């Protein structure tokens, strides 16, 4: 029996594993030292991600979006997010781990995988989800994390009490004026003008955005080399299992119950079965919460996705019509 490296699942996941592996070797050999990781994280989070998110959203026309499957996907993710948040103690660390349980690698892995498996029609479905994926889920996590952080600060000795409405308003403001949602919102608003990006602007943004996925994954590998994975393995397996198996199972059941069928259902279930996206790693770095555990979870979920994605693609066609 020969291994088919052109299989859609393998051809999408193996490059991700190789990039993480390259970063791991670079970290072990100290090509990138531990004290440089924070600066690289800021580069990816504050420069490369900005370019990718703004450029992607600058081509999205609201009237062309099919909101049905996308809204259901986000609803399922929100339910799972709050379930994990409650199970893990309703604190800021739990918010980061809850995000890891629902945020898929829709761009780096999802785009080539769905393109190979379902063609252009599948990509249209996936791009509709991608257009709001980071905006909805990262904003949700940011609002919750800001609220929990405000609660923690209010409990500190000598802290002045804050009115709930003011705390909520501050959290929403911090969620919007934030390195991830802000370029998404700006890009979406710009897209509605219909002007398009001039080549002199579009080309640099494209180059920066193209660097996001590879550099972020290499950075995951570097951090992994500096993390005691053995100590994090049990926790990482639990988070990765929720992300790659529980999430798609809930999406499939909810989609089927809501009357979603065929290609839209298949793409949404496959998207839910994808491993944890690099944005979660950057999110944990940004807020300095559960960094080692999230790093290990990204790597473990990438390995588990070889099974979860294959199962999703194989089983969805057998759901009752």
Automatic annotation (TrEMBL):
It is found in: Membrane. It comes from the Bacteria. GO terms for cellular component: membrane. GO terms for biological process: transmembrane transport. The chain crosses the membrane at residues 12-31, 43-61, 67-87, 94-118, 124-150, 171-191, 211-229, 236-257, 263-282, 294-319. Its main location: membrane. Keywords: Cell membrane, Membrane, Transmembrane, Transmembrane helix, Transport. It is a multi-pass membrane protein. InterPro entries: Mem_transp_PIN-like (IPR004776). This is Transporter. The lineage of its organism: Bacteria, Pseudomonadati, Pseudomonadota, Betaproteobacteria, Burkholderiales.
